[in-house]
Design goal:
By secondary structure, this protein is an alpha/beta fold. 32% of the residues lie in helices and 23% in strands. The protein is globular, with a radius of gyration of 24 Å. Bound molecules: 5'-O-[(S)-ethoxy(hydroxy)phosphoryl]adenosine.
Amino acid sequence: MSQPTIESILHEERLFQPAADFSQQAQIKSLEQYQQLYDKAKADPQAFWAELAATELHWFQKWDTVLDWQPPFAKWFVNGKINISYNCLDRHLTTWRRNKAALIWEGEPGDSRTLTYAQLHREVCQFANVLKQLGVKKGDRVGIYMPMIPEAAIAMLACARIGAVHSVVFGGFSAEALRDRLMDVQAKLVVTADGGWRKDAIVPLKEQVDKALANNSAPAVANVLVVRRTEQTIAMEPGRDHWWHDLQAGVSADCPAEPMDSEDMLFVLYTSGSTGKPKGVVHTTGGYNLYTHMTTKWIFDLKDTDVYWCTADVGWITGHSYIVYGPLSNGATSVMYEGAPRASNPGCTWDMIEKYGVNIFYTAPTAIRAFIKMGEHLPNARNLDSLRLLGTVGEPINPEAWMWYHRIIGKERCPIVDTWWQTETGGIMITPLPGAVPTKPGSATLPFPGILAEIVDLEGDPVPPNEGGYLAVRHPWPGMMRTVYGDPDRFRRTYWEHIPPKDGAYLYFAGDGARRDEDGYFWVMGRVDDVINVAGHRLGTMEIESALVSHPFVAEAAVVGKPDDLKGEEIVAFVTLENNITASDQLKNELKKHVVQEIGAIARPGEIKFAEALPKTRSGKIMRRLLRSLAAGEEISGDTSTLEDRSVLEKLREG
Ligand code: WTA
């Protein structure tokens, strides 16, 4: 059970046709229908998206231009007025969905809550009024650092309702990482909780917020709103900190959705790139709403009777697009679970599916590999008959894990949608449409209609079938990121000029290596930059290196990914120490702890290797390729002639 290798996927020839009964009831029923949609969208993308925008969403005012494309800056539905909270809530209230479950939530201790559309609307309106009372205005940024509880979604929707820009920071990030993000986005207010439950322990969220804000380090933050969740004692700073329930009590539930410009900022979400600082990915309102709406509808083949469960955390893009905005815009029932499989309850995932009758289940390959390891007796002991569609996201899925998912969870009956996309793309880009596209284990198959995905070389020239190249997208799409917060130049350089534009034609560079087979199916191999994917979490090697060198004993650090059966990749750090510092196991542990403190537990190195020196080129660049081979225990192959000092390599090899 390892990551897909060129060999394993080149020999992958199994093809799974969608079951006839699934196709008959599906939104998109056949390969021909998919092909027609794809061709139509390709021939005239603007007309394609405009038609869907007009029929699928509510607009306060119609746009006058579908797309204004000043490469690499796109504006969709120019001058249209729209509010995504209105599309996710208000418009369902005048239909029978008013009393349909919008969110079904369960906490790790087993407490649960269901919010109908009417109830969710009420809570969102009240909380939006709380934000207004605290002086939050259209365009202001609000930090959200929360456990997986309904209030996380309520806070996001409340921001969207009044035009405030949310910036959710994953609750597993450390105080340091939180501070960096709050500072970069200049958050005016932070929404958090006393704590959250994670694997039978309390994550002390409020304490981390206090640390992040200590010494007035994010001076724009005037207020902190705290949800009572775990009920341990926490410090409350008078004037700054308020209990959510205190402020919400008695507040009016009347708060009309603010008509937003289609291109008004909806949220900023930080993600790792190949340079040091995480970048704030900016998404705007109208295009994002349409794109998440359509992808949810067609890819998850949503029916009004479905119970849909995505296991992501709202702190990641998957949680934004496919727990909150996409499902709610479609009027779906979205399940939210605070917990994760843990020693005291390894089968909780299957209990959730049985208990709530989940029909559509969307998770990550790393979770599937963990399920396999925990044993099929766990799912086999539950009734999973309600399932009709399965999905994966976040990393390449190895064919073995795909087959296990297909057999043990899907009972060879449920189609699997392997969905390739990124924080930057806003929504799913390459995926099977489950009633239409035959699947191959390990392939994300074909692009979504309207997505002109290609495999090219670094000049932007197409690469022949079955040859490796870079995954790129040719035409803007409504859900694409608009810019890097505060750094449009970085946006241009990172994504649109990595492959130099030719004759005014710009290609979006995804940072992934991939190939297309003779059927046009995409096989994504993984990142080609210094981003590693650990258990589906995206981390920049530079971030981890910066964390390591911020320790006083560390002189230099180089971080690489090493293939790992469970997590996909594992972090290996090569570290040189300052003079007079002695290497020890104790120091290794201290450095691991230090990284956890600087970034969060998701970035804890699996291995630290002390070295006398790091392999560098004559111009001083660390040769990561060599370190990757060393970490993986492979023979060093390829050219080493640019190495400045060959003895460094020998010493590293001797360990
Ligand atoms: C990887 C997560 C292969 C890829 C939605 C991408 C995948 C990065 C897949 C984005 C998939 C995501 N197959 N690789 N189905 N889905 N990836 O921004 O390397 O957290 O560039 O967005 O995850 O990670 P991000």
